[in-house]
Write a structure and sequence with these properties.
The structure holds two protein chains of two kinds. By secondary structure, chain A is of the alpha/beta class. Chain A contains eight helices and six strands. Chain A has a single domain, classed as 3-Layer(aba) Sandwich (Pyruvate-ferredoxin Oxidoreductase, domain 3), CATH 3.40.920. A six-stranded mixed beta sheet of chain A has the order 2-3-1-4-5-6, sandwiched between helices. In chain A, helix 2 links the parallel strand 4 and strand 5. The longest helix of chain A has 14 residues. By secondary structure, chain B is α/β, with parallel strands linked by helices. Chain B has four domains: 212 residues, Thiamin diphosphate (ThDP)-binding fold, Pyr/PP domains (Rossmann fold, 3-Layer(aba) Sandwich); 97 residues, Rossmann fold; 163 residues, 3-Layer(aba) Sandwich (Rossmann fold), CATH 3.40.50.970; 63 residues, Alpha-Beta Plaits (2-Layer Sandwich). Chain B starts with a strand and ends in a 13-residue tail after the last strand. Classes of the chains: A alpha/beta, B alpha/beta. Chains A and B meet through helix 1, strand 2, helix 2, strand 5 and helix 3 of A and strand 1, strand 8, helix 11 and strand 20 of B. The structure holds thiamine diphosphate.
């Protein structure tokens, strides 16, 4: 078993919780796991990425390279596009349709790419694209986008429903556990 | 118990288990979480944020002399600031174990350079340990304390972005409490005067030679014999890339990168046909290995000294195929000052006035980017003040020229620069952005915050009184969102032929949350796009017109203040009536 999962988005979108949940799931199942993220400048609304590598033997490098990701979970459309070269042949993508304009686009210096949908469809064997923000709001908070997306991507991962619920209970603040369980279920239903 | 830990959390755990008692650090990505994690443990450890790295190391040296295990953590450039105490403490040795942790930033993810701290370790003459995964982060930290006491030396641990900010599985252990070693005066050891230094320098040489000899015994060498054709000497995170890219190769993993166990390396070299040295950054290992007469088949002629390495980079260098994927042309997403950030008011004004701005290091450096483009330089912590002074002395110009720096940066290294300006009769203007926190590195307390590293109440440094005490006659405090008053003040002070300090006071938007009621752009909007010039992540463009991104807007009202047509409604205090900036 080997799963390389790339979680990408915009600073402040909550990509970190998603990777913490995944990492702990892997640990509980007895897999080796490494995660890698970059703090600092990349927060503050810049692009962010977390690498999650799970293996039933050993994970050496914490980095997923171009063409190596089994799954890309994208919190924003342009970010899905940016990391597309990292998807392996036959890989799956779970994409929040939300668009967040980077400053150069707002200033009219460059265009937000118009061919993202086609590019994603061409590269990904499985492509699930939906409005995760709307579902998160329906579940009770726009902050639950991360768990909605995990719910959607959970189908491509080797963890049972019980294990997911267990890890949500353990690593989400008690106050938000129910909300996140709802959000997860809504993602699964996509 | 096994837990997933960030490399930095594992370092902290190792220090805690090793019985560390005093920790004094200054924040800096990617080192910060080590100290933050330790600050969350109980009273068994005194954890503090020092005003800068030099003080941090001095505190740790004093704690060690007092008989306790002590730690100081910093980013790579922080070790430049701390180099003075570090180099001499390296002669003197320790009483309680003394460890300095430094985190490099290959790839410049969040730094102004990618300098290689191994040279500082070698220059100072201390052992340098380099772990390769979170589990080793913990183990090496504990070993570092033991080595420090056993060999009577300061120990440097070198981490980096990928080490500090990767997570992996770590087994937790128990803390071993250590009694504070009773103090005995030893002035030959601790008073660094020429006669003592000469003696201590000799001792230092001896212990380094001993450590190089003991590297294997200490568990800091791992020789993995495989295919004898290719042998790779490597260390730290590169070890992981090598294992992934060249699983068949023989590998000599160094956990100790200074002093080098050259005899062991020579023995390994003699067992393989071709020896490679794979290390990020400068050819630090390679040059020493070559200088020892060990033939190196491939080193920096195959690899760059810039940036981060990866398994694919190594595969390519060895002619191994890697997956080819199509590149995309995605527009960049540069980081921005947050919605509600107090710095935005100031930089909106400076951008409007086309002021020459000697910048500094902090969140506010981001104002160098579009749309404000309001910063002319950024060198090092506190550098803005010295640079402004030099610029003025060279050009005779102080009109529409300012130095800009944050509260934490001012306290770190700006105060001495300001003393210099007073002393040497500067006429310039210094603006201190006082948001009461060390923002850029993730919101650590500082001496002006009113809280300490553990979040307890602490005395707050009064920056205005400090500036007056230094001898600055013109000191002003102003809310940076009062943009009209601020503009007038900056114009007046930069045209005055006297030194002035303007302190812009408003708390960081991440610490004191705003009302949260989003602003609204009304139909009075003439699409002049003045609001876009604020550079706010909560203002986007749709169908050629600005709009407020509800999820991102915190309702700070700055856009309402800059709108010349009173077209933006905000519930933020003071802007209900719409206060256009003409
Ligand atoms: C010598 C050195 N130490 C630490 C850092 C890391 N660092 C970058 S900016 C900064 C301080 C930022 O705080 P402040 O000046 O208050 O500005 P803010 O980010 O809050 O606007 C620090 C500690 C550095 N770049 N150089």
């Amino acid at each position: 078993m080997e799963k390389n999962i790339l979680i990408v988005g915009v600073g402040g979108q909550g990509t970190l919780l998603a990777s913490v949940l995944l990492g702990n799931l892997a640990l509980q199942k007895g897999y080796d796991v490494k995660l890698s993220e970059v703090h600092g400048m990349s927060q503050r609304g810049g692009d962010v990425v977390t690498h999650v590598k799970i293996n039933d033997t050993i994970v050496a490098s914490p980095l997923i390279e171009k063409g190596e990701a089994d799954i890309i979970i994208a919190f924003e459309k342009l970010e899905a596009y940016r990391w597309l070269p990292y998807l392996r042949e036959g890989g799956a993508m779970y994409v929040n349709e939300q668009q967040i304009m980077p400053m150069p686009v707002v200033l009219g210096q460059v265009e937000y790419p118009s061919d993202i949908d086609e590019a994603l469809a061409k590269a990904a064997s499985t492509l699930v694209k939906f409005d995760a923000l709307a579902l998160a709001e329906e579940a009770g908070s726009s902050k639950a986008v991360n768990v909605v997306l995990l719910g959607a991507a959970s189908k491509a991962m080797p963890f049972t429903q019980e294990e997911w619920m267990d890890v949500i209970e353990k690593y989400v603040k008690p106050k938000f556990v129910e909300l996140n369980k709802t959000a997860f279920a809504m993602g699964q239903a996509v | 118990m096994k837990r997933i830990m960030l490399g930095n959390e594992a370092f902290a755990r190792g220090a805690w288990e090793a019985g560390v008692r005093v920790v004094s650090s200054y924040p800096g990505t990617p080192s910060t979480e080590v100290t933050e994690t330790l600050a969350k443990c109980g009273d068994e450890v005194h954890v503090e944020w020092a005003p800068n790295e030099k003080v941090g190391v001095e505190v740790a040296v004093g704690a060690s002399m007092g008989g306790a295990r002590a730690l100081s953590c910093m980013k790579h450039v922080g070790l430049n600031v701390a180099a003075d105490p570090f180099f001499t403490a390296a002669y003197n040795g320790v009483t309680g174990g003394l460890v300095v942790l430094v985190a490099d930033d290959n790839g410049c993810h969040s730094s102004q350079n990618e300098q290689d701290s191994r040279y500082h370790g070698r220059g100072a003459g201390v052992p340098v340990l380099e772990p390769a995964d979170p589990s080793e982060c913990k183990d090496y930290m504990k070993l570092a304390f033991d080595m420090s006491e056993n060999y009577d030396t300061v120990v440097l641990i070198r981490s980096g972005t990928r080490m500090s900010h990767s997570r992996g599985i770590v087994e937790e252990g128990e803390r071993v409490e250590r009694e504070v070693i009773p103090y005995e005066k030893d002035f030959l050891k601790y008073v660094a005067m020429p006669a003592m230094a000469r003696v201590n320098h000799v001792k230092q040489e001896k212990r380094l030679a001993q450590i190089a000899e003991d590297a294997g015994k200490l568990g800091l060498i791992k020789e993995e014999m495989n295919d004898p054709e290719i042998g790779v000497v490597t260390s730290g995170i590169c070890y992981q890339y090598v294992k992934e890219a060249l699983p068949e190769a023989s590998v000599f993993k160094l956990g100790l990168v200074n002093p080098l166990p050259l005899q062991d390396i020579a023995a390994f070299a003699s067992k393989v046909s071709r020896l490679y040295v794979i290390e990020e950054g400068n050819p630090f290992l390679e040059e020493q290995i070559r200088a020892a007469g060990i033939p190196v088949h491939g080193g920096k002629e195959l690899f760059t000294i810039q940036g981060e390495y990866s398994a694919n980079m190594i595969r390519k260098a060895f002619g191994i195929e890697v997956p080819e994927t199509e590149d995309v042309n995605a527009p960049g997403r540069p980081p921005l000052l947050c919605a509600g950030c107090p710095h935005k008011g100031l930089f909106y004004v400076l951008s409007k006035l086309k002021t020459t701005v000697m910048g500094d290091i902090g969140c506010y450096t981001l104002a160098a980017l579009a749309p404000t483009n309001a910063i002319d330089s950024c060198l090092c912590m506190g550098g803005s003040i010295g640079m402004e002074h030099g610029f003025e002395k060279a050009t005779g110009r102080n009109d529409n020229l300012v130095a800009v720096l944050g509260d934490s940066t001012f306290i770190h290294s700006g105060i001495t620069g300001l003393v210099n300006m007073v002393y040497n009769e500067a006429k310039g203007t210094v603006i201190i952005l006082d948001n009461r926190i060390t923002g850029m590195t993730g919101h650590q307390q500082n001496p002006a915050s009113g809280k300490n590293a553990k979040g307890e109440l602490a005395p707050a440094l009064d920056l205005a009184s400090l500036c007056r005490a230094i001898g600055v006659k013109n000191v002003f405090e102003i809310d940076p969102f009062e943009i009209r008053e601020l503009e007038e003040l900056i114009k007046a002070e930069t045209s005055r032929d006297e030194l002035s300090v303007i302190i812009t006071k408003r708390p960081c938007a991440m610490i004191v949350k705003q009302t949260g009621v989003p602003n609204v752009i009304t139909d009075r909007c003439k699409n002049c796009r003045q609001c876009i010039k604020v550079g706010c992540p909560a203002i986007g463009m749709k169908d050629g017109r600005p709009y407020i991104i509800k999820e991102s807007c915190v309702g700070c009202g700055l856009c309402a203040r800059v709108c010349p047509f009173d077209a933006i409604e905000s519930t933020a205090r003071g802007v209900e009536a719409g206060r256009g900036d003409e």
